[in-house]
Design brief:
- The chain has one domain.
- Helices cover 78% and strands 0% of the residues.
- It is built from ten helices and no strands.
- The longest helix is centred in the middle third of the chain and has 31 residues.
- The protein starts with a helix and ends in a 10-residue tail after the last helix.
Length: 222
């Protein structure tokens, strides 16, 4: 319970924790940030790390000269791209092993075929959009690997999504992160970064579920 409390405190006050780390350990902050972004995107069991808010705060700290903007962008972009590649490789490794369970209740051949077809057709858009959605960005590359999305296609959209996510959010933080109103309401902005994409995912899932429900027509009265 204490660990969960500390995690929430880090997520909601990432600016204070990161600034304290920079003051205490200097350049080692880049190694810490690289590890956090890599683990969030590269290890399928770590979807709760604060990627969006962390990038925003990094940009704000670059804006006041506490960190180097080019170095932060370069390292964290590499972490995001390599993390997705690692996650994809894990899914690609476990996929064939799951296929051996074809006669098992744990494997659904039709579901796999649908996932594979979906990722070949819409996987690029999914991977780019997932970069901006907590939890989903951790699972999307793994599922792409399990669904055997082609490596070349995955890599292209991995790099594209990584550039838009890392460069985009750090740059926004660089220019707007130190506005007085933003600093005073950073905890609310962080909650919005977490909740709004989550609500979009839930709404989409509910809409899809309702669309699948058969329409029952009342029989005409004689």
């Amino acid at each position: 319970m204490e660990l969960i409390t500390q995690l929430f405190d880090f997520i909601l006050h990432v600016d204070k924790h990161l600034q304290a780390f920079v003051i205490s350990y200097g350049p080692w902050v880049y190694a810490l940030l690289f590890a956090i972004i890599f683990v969030e995107t590269g290890v399928v069991v770590m979807p709760f790390l604060p990627g969006d808010s962390l990038l925003f705060v990094v940009g704000a700290m670059c804006g006041v000269g506490l960190m180097s903007y080019p170095l932060a962008v370069g390292l964290l972009l590499a972490a995001a791209i390599l993390g997705n590649q690692c996650n994809y490789a894990i899914g690609r490794f476990f996929g064939p092993k799951v296929f051996q369970w074809e006669d098992s209740k744990f494997f659904n051949k039709q579901a796999f075929n649908q996932a594979h077809a979906f990722y070949e057709k819409y996987g690029g858009v999914t991977l780019v959009a997932a970069r901006f959605m907590p939890f989903l960005r951790t699972f999307a590359p793994f599922v792409a690997g399990v669904a055997l999305m082609s490596r070349a296609k995955f890599t292209f959209y991995d790099v594209l999504g990584g550039v838009l996510w890392v460069v985009g959010i750090i740059t926004i933080g660089y220019f707007f992160g130190n506005f007085p109103w933003v600093k005073q309401n950073l905890d609310k902005i962080i909650w919005a970064m977490i909740l709004i994409p989550g609500l979009i995912i839930v709404a989409g899932a509910l809409k899809q579920r309702w669309a699948r429900k058969p329409v029952v027509l009342a029989s005409p009265k004689n």
